[in-house]
Amino acid sequence: MEENRDYWKTEGRIFDIQRYSIHDGPGIRTIVFLKGCYLRCRWCCNPESQEYKIQTMTVAGKPKIMGQDITVEEVMAEIDKDEAYYRRSNGGITLSGGECLFQPDFSAALLKAAKEKGYHTAIESTGCAPYQEIQKLLPYLDLYLMDIKHMDSDKHKQFTGQPNERILENARQIAIDAKELIIRVPVIPTFNNTKEEIRAISEFAASLPNVKQLHLLPYHRLGQDKYTGLGRTYTLADIEPMAEEYMQGLLETAKHSGLACQIGG
User: What is the rounded CA–CA span in Å between residue 83 and residue 85?
Assistant: First the structure.
């Protein structure tokens, strides 16, 4: 009996689909960027993702609508264009944002459709959501890329708008329930780029069952112009990206945790 595919009609809100990516999971991937996020990270390179509402952003001097409502079936039609690349490279799809847990039913339906086609699935997520929402995605998820930004809840809230207790609690459970969990750390000057802070995060990551990898993601300014385009102020404008030598020092600190650590990912 053919499985009921009504879930292919599930509708969600995205702002971009990026093909031919070699980041955010293995092989060649298509990244689907969803609207809406629970956090307001000061360094966010996709500020157009934070609000669920559809926005107008000035890009290269011209207004551009950021956000569209789309069904799983319509997204899959775009994803399927690169099926041959996924097969050859063991690639697939990654849900990013924003935060895909902000739209858990759409995200779960999209991952389910991708698994039905035999694609590798991943999400890039903060884990900042009720755990029952995360559970909706896990049966169809091959790889969870989870940000752990800071171990100090007050500082976490200062720079992201939310405390970290739920995130850390969810990380402990995701490490048990997910097929694969990789911890990623956006390394931000003035926020978490000291050896002590990286050591604390890497030691926490190493304490999680089944976690073997940690990725350090260096701060960059690639999204700064978007803030101007949205009529917002980029509050980290005076912060300089870190030298490669400095990042290497943080990498060596992280490696003391015993995890396989790398810069980027």
Answer: 5
Distance CA 248, CA 254 (A): 10
Residues 174 and 143: beta-carbon distance below 8 Å? no
Which stretch of DSSP H or E encloses residue 125?
strand 120-125
Cα 10 from Cα 156, distance rounded (Å) = 34
- Contact indicator for 67, 14 with CB cutoff of 8 Å: yes
Q: What is the DSSP letter of 208?
A: S
Let me know if 4 is exposed, middle or buried by CB neighbors in 10 A (0-12, 13-18, 19+).
exposed
- pLDDT at residue 44, rounded to an integer: 96
**136-164 per-position pLDDT tens digit:** 999 999 999 999 999 999 999 999 999 99
* pTM value > 0.90: yes
Q: Which helix or strand (DSSP H or E) is residue 224 part of?
A: helix 224-229
> What are the residues facing 94 on neighbouring strands?
31, 122
> What b/e sequence results for 231-253 when a residue is b if at least 16 CB atoms lie within 10 Å of its CB, and e otherwise?
eeebebeebeebeeeebeebbeb
Of 206, 189, 191, 205, which Cα lies nearest the Cα of 240? Answer: 189
State pLDDT tens for residues 2-21. Answer: 467 899 999 999 999 999 99
Q: Give burial (CB, 10 Å; 0-12/13-18/19+) of 73.
A: middle
Among candidate residues 265, 258, 103, 247, the one with its CA nearest the CA of residue 183: 265
Q: Which residues contact 18 (CB under 8 A, 6 or more apart)?
A: 30, 31, 33
49: left (phi over 0), alpha (psi -120 to 50) or beta: alpha
pLDDT grade for 184, boundaries at 50, 70 and 90 = very high
Distance CA 193, CA 200 (A): 11
